[in-house]
Backbone:
């Protein structure tokens, strides 16, 4: 008989808690004020870089590969420079396009924007990828004769567009500043 009374008592004790699950959310990210410095570590080009980013060599063997790291945002812009012969320009641009379109499986939209700054002889294409993609922003720049620069943004996080959107928009603006301030050194 005691066991029969004990079971309802246990249910009564444990059912009296007022537990309600909290909805899943994301931490608020404080975005810093924008400031830029000139990146002149490569003899072939220069551009403006965010003051909160750090330029790091990607390889000791190749001084033309480097990364621009945003440590607080777990974001990295992977950059590479190649001196090219004019006959290889179309091959390089096509390789860049192929690298972007490898994300077509996950991308909702891939938009291309042609960039042209004839005053400084800087031409290229900017790719913006929407959706849960690993690399949501990529571009290449060239002088259309002998220089080719390529960069792609990656986050060290699960590619969930909703969670990275504030940081992605912030870093995108920095990349646009980088592109607009890009100069070939001759």
Residues:
């Amino acid at each position: 008989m005691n066991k029969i009374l004990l079971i309802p008592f246990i249910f009564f004790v444990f059912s009296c808690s007022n537990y309600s699950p909290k909805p899943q959310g994301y931490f608020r990210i404080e975005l810093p004020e924008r400031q830029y410095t000139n990146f002149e570590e490569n003899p072939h080009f220069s551009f403006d870089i965010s003051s909160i980013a750090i330029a790091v060599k990607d390889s000791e063997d190749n001084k033309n590969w480097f990364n621009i790291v945003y440590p607080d945002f777990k974001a990295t812009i992977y950059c590479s420079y190649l001196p090219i012969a004019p006959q290889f320009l179309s091959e390089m641009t096509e390789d860049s396009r192929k690298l972007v379109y490898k994300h077509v499986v996950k991308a909702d939209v891939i938009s291309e924007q042609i960039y042209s700054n004839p005053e400084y002889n800087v031409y290229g294409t900017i790719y913006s990828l929407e959706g849960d993609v690993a690399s949501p922003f990529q571009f290449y720049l060239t002088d259309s004769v002998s220089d080719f620069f390529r960069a792609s943004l990656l986050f060290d996080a699960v590619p969930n567009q909703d969670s990275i959107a504030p940081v992605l928009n912030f870093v995108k603006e920095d990349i646009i500043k980088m592109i607009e301030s890009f100069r070939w050194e001759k």
